[in-house]
Amino acid sequence: MPELPELNPIIHGKLRLAVLSLLAGVEQAEFTWLRGKTGSTDGNLGAQLLKLEEAEYLAVEKKFVMRKPQSVYRITEKGRAALAEYVQALKMLLGSAINV
Amino acid sequence: MQDEMNARELNERLDLIQSMIAEGRRSTESWGWVFLLWGVAYSVAIGWASWGGGLSVWGHSYVTLGSIRSGLAWPLTMMTAVVVTLAIGLRKGKPLAATSLVRSIVSIWIAVGVAMLVIFPAFGFTGRLEEHTFVALIAAMLGVANGASGMILRWKAQIACAIIWWVTSVAACFGSLAELTMVFLAAIFICQIVFGVYAMILESRRNRREIVHA
Prior knowledge:
The complex is a heterodimer of chains A (100) and B (214). Chain A is of the alpha+beta class and 100 residues long. Chain A has helices at 9-12, 14-24, 31-38, 42-54, 77-99, and strands at residues 28-30, 58-65, 68-75. Chain A has one domain (9-99): Winged helix-like DNA-binding domain superfamily/Winged helix DNA-binding domain (Arc Repressor Mutant, subunit A). Chain A contains 5 helices and 3 strands; from the N terminus they run H-H-E-H-H-E-E-H. The model of chain A has no long low-confidence stretch (mean pLDDT 88). Chain B has one domain. Chain B is elongated. Helix content of chain B is 79%, strand content 1%. The chains are: A alpha+beta (100), B mainly alpha (214).
C-alpha cells in the first residue's frame, strides 16, 4: 500500500491557504484587497502573510503611494509549486479516504 | 496531521482553494462609466457640430469648410473626454489586484483608443475624411475592441455590441447623411449609453454582494 502524503503545515492553515489560493489567481494584490477577500483582521492577516513570506512562498513589495504605505504581494514559483503539491496531496488523501 | 482529518475537512480545503482562485480571477474593476462617458461625448460632438444645421452637417469635411463652431466640436469634445477619462481613472487609482485578464482587455481598449486618437485628427487636419468613412471606421474599430473583450470575458452583451458596431460599419457605407447620423446615434445609444448603464448596474450589484460577504 502506498504511503499517504504529508500535508504541508505552512499552507494548511485556513487563512494561509486562502491567501495563497487568492494570489494564485492574480499577478499581484494589495494587503487591503487580501483583507477584504478573506474577511480577516489586519493583525491576523499580517502574521499569516509573514509566515508565508518567511517560507518564501510570497514576495512582498513595500512602497509609499501618496504618502500612504502600501504592501503588494505576489506568489513566488516556490509558493505556486507548494500549493500544487498540497492540492495533489489532498486529492491522494481524499482518494484513500474514499477507498477506506 | 491528516489522521485527525476526515474526508469532509479535506473536501472543505479543496473547495476553499477553488473558490479563492476563482475569487482572485474575478474582475473587481468598474468600466461601465467609460462607455457611458464616451457615449455622451460622441452624442455631444454630433449635436454640437450639427447645431442649427440639421443632421447632415456634423462631420469632418464640414470641420475645415464649415463654421468655426462646427470645426471645434469634435476635437474639443474628444479631447475633453480623454482628459475626463484620465482624471477619473487617476482618481480611482490603480486596481488593488492585477490580473492578466484585466491587463489584456485594457490593452485592447488602449490600443484602439490610441489608433483613433492618431488617425482621426490626422484625417480632420488634411480634410480627407468623409462622414460615411468616418462612421464606418469608428464603428469597425469599436466593433473590434468590443468583440475582443467580449470574447475574452465570454460576455454575450458585449459581443452583441460588437455585432451592432460591425453592422453599423457596413450600414455607414450606404444611405444619406441624415440616415447615417441616425444609424450612428442609434449605435452610440445602444452600445455606449445603454451598455454602459447596464455594466454600471452589474458592477454596483457585484460591489453590494462583496460588502455583504466581507
